[in-house]
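Memo to structure team: turn this sequence into structure tokens by end of day. - J.P.
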Amino acid sequence: MQRNSFLLLIAVSFSFLTSAQVISPPEIKDPELRALQQQYIEDLKQLGADIVSIPTAYPFYLSRRLDIDEAQQKASDQRSIRFDRYQGKIILEVTGNYYAAYSANKMTPEQRSKETFDHIILPILKVEVPRFQNNRNIRAYAFEISHHVLGKVMGVSMERPENLLVVLPQQAAIRLVSAQDDNVRQAALLQGEINLNGKPVTIWLSGEGPQLTAQEPSADGEATAPSSTAAEVVRGGEEKNDSIQFKPIPKTLKPVDPPVPIRDTSPQALASLQAEHKDTLASIVKELDSQAHFIPYAAPSFIAFRKGIYLELSMNTNLSEAPVSSRYRLAALAFDDHLSHLIRPVLGYFKDDSQFDGLGFSATIHLATKPTANASSVAVEYFFPFKALRCYESYDCTGQQLIDSGTVLINGERVGLDLQVAEASGR
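Reply from structure team:
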């Protein structure tokens, strides 16, 4: 009898621990999200159990509140797993506090983000994605994880919180956790959105991406150089223990660029750029038209796009495809067979990347076989920031990585574009 009571107590305790990680459905106000929370409550509880069983180097707690000290966290609500919305899409979100403190003097923001991603977010994805990858309701997985940073303010050592946000689309998450090829995994990660304290950062799985910098402003405004041999992560404010080794940062990398001011995208600013580069744009049309097939009535022009300024080049793209080919296949072939060959020649006309933000290629696709009267035409726009373009120009990034770093619109709607998958799909 006593043994049965003991087993019952264990079962009840386990049930409490697993449910303690999941937001209860009645607390969710959105009716659709509340229904999903109720429908998948058992899967969410099991996910909670899987997460709390993940070994971590430093204490990690699921939590509804970020940036609280560990003593307070132990007594706080640790239910955080829930369905939510992000940019109008349904996501599965996890929030929590990770009590590691990274040295601001020895680790760049990208390195700090990678540490938390490697030790907290990626292990969660590995137990989360297999359980929910066939759930058509979930469009993305989201994480808000707080960690700590050690630095100095006016010469005084201080510890401050930092919040890492990662949003990864469903298909990208599947490729990230299942692919064996590092390039495929990196391309999948680049499809997501990653912010550290509200500022975009890039996580390179190899630790050697082109975004790594040789300097970072410290908390008191002084530039500090990351260690060339190691970056340290500590808990509790002492910076001498538990060092974690990183690969040396190449000395040839440039210092961090100053913050980019908010771009003036007014009609006057666009007209000024157009006038300043008038001769250059004329040269591009004259010298590259034979391979670009520019549209005569749509001259290269500077346009405002997503709070930036892009030089848009409009052209005709001819493909020997059947009219029944999918628009994704056509977009992928247009990039590989036509536009990719123009990127380096066009970049050769611009040595200063500071005046505008990147290049936009607008392709009107024409098929060798005339489509039926009811078939709609396909117009694809590719917008690429200079940072990704220069990486591609120097052969440090693949075409897929360039696509993932930019924005692709098909007939005015933003899409994700996997070149290999789209081209292999046939029709």
